[in-house]
Amino acid sequence: TDAEVSTRKKTFAEVQTERQDQAERTVLIKCPSKINEKKLLQYLSSHGNVKSHFFFENRGINALIEFSEKSSIASLQDAVGIPSATEHHVVPFKSRLFTFTLKNPVSQHVEETPLHLSPQCHIPVKDLIQKLCLADSISSQMYMLLNEYQLTEENIKLRFLACSLVRDFTRAYFPDSTVKPFGSSVNTFGKLGSDVDMFLDFHNTGKHATKMKKGPFEMEYQMKRLPSERLATQRILSVIGDCLDNFGPGCVNVQKILNARCPLVKFSHQPTGFQCDLSVSNSIATRSSELLYIYGCLDSRVRALVFTIRCWARVHGLTNSAPGTWITNFSLTMMVMFFLQRRSPPIIPTLDQLKELADEKDKHIIGGYDCSFVSDLTKIKPTKNTEPLDVLLAEFFEYFGNFDFRKNSINLRKGKEVNKPEPSPLYIWNPFEQDLNISKNVNQPQLEKFVAMARESAWILQKEDKTQQIINKEPWGLAALLIPFGRSNSSKMKNRKGIASETIRGLLDSLKLNNANSQQKAVGK
User: Fold this and answer.
1) What is the fold of 125-149+299-348+383-460?
2) The whole model's pTM is what?
3) Which of 3.10.180.10, 3.30.460.10, 3.40.50.510, 3.40.50.300 is the CATH number of 3-103+151-203+229-283?
4) Least enclosed by CB within 10 Å: which of 78, 95, 348, 414?
5) PAP-associated domain location, by residue (predicted)?
6) Does pLDDT of 502 surpass 80?
7) Residue 343 CB coordination number (10 Å)
């Protein structure tokens, strides 16, 4: 749509600011089950103009209401009462979460029009597979998957609202702090149902620097001093965590994980239904989010391929939501980006190329690392590559099925395969912290499983007879790749030389080699 194209060209910072402002004008209402949309909006309009709204299901019906003016919230809050303490006593923290019940529900039994509820999670894979079989090409299957899984406008609003509600707490201690989402909530690669990663930021940059230059004195606040930044982070998160635990409406299962490499507070935010991870500002994580945002906006094929590969990896147990030795979604996304940089002509630019396009305002040096790259999307030339998605999918499996992981590493700065600086099974350079491998956790068996699955998938796409499969009502194209291999009906397995046969062939080859070697030795004697 045209609207989408125009939003696509905004810079990352513009989009974030816009969404944060939106969230500050927003409230969340738990509605009665027989809610009349018109009456609700009519009532709310008495407090100010309602700019947008939607309903969703989460332990009952909820409405997210965005007012045009922030002052409307104060007006509404003045009209809202404190719950009567019957069996519970309440913590009198007045938030932007309300419960509406009908005063005389009897007269309301007529429901004129059913409410439209915005889905906040994606359909199960088995339903997706059935839908995919109705598409007319692998490319359209991939776009279909993207549409089912990507974050909706409504879900993004809900994510920013969750951050804004946490920020209402942090502002009690740190008046100019902000709480911002990072990672998949903002980088255009988030899927419905994923956690919200948020961080607490104290740097209200820019505004202050100019004022400080004036006057004859160097002036600074007296602040508590601690031996390390880490300790400060742990103390702040500990207090905010307790605060959410003790006073936060709907904040449950609060866990403080303060000894982790990156200290964080995990909690469930029941009103929005999100699982949240709160940490203290991580500038490099923000740069990574923005880099992916840029790549995701440059070409529609980028996101379609990433979502497809991630879904494929999840189905085959190559990725897992629990931490461990498997490939993470972030590593997988970086592998897709690298593959797209390697196409001829390239579909996306390398990080070094984006850095060359950067101007003064794009300069970011963080902890000694140069994290500069262009933020204005219009400065990046569109690709001349016109390869369709089905070709890219098959080529992705082909490329990594035959990649020399023993020798080479993946470097997005250069867009080149470079020799591994150290012997990890899978080496993907951290795009910003140049001495780190983002896939250090991956072990050899997991990497081998990935390679085997990629080869098997390339093989299935090659051998496929789409017409025949449609006649036989068998899953075809992408749908065939989203069924765990080896589980499909046995007749198909018989006429398909899959992983097993590859393994056997490998064994035979090595036997032949050994045989040949021993014969040579015998001859040599």
Assistant:
1) Poly(a)-polymerase, middle domain (1.10.1410)
2) 0.89
3) 3.30.460.10
4) 78
5) 391-423
6) no
7) 17
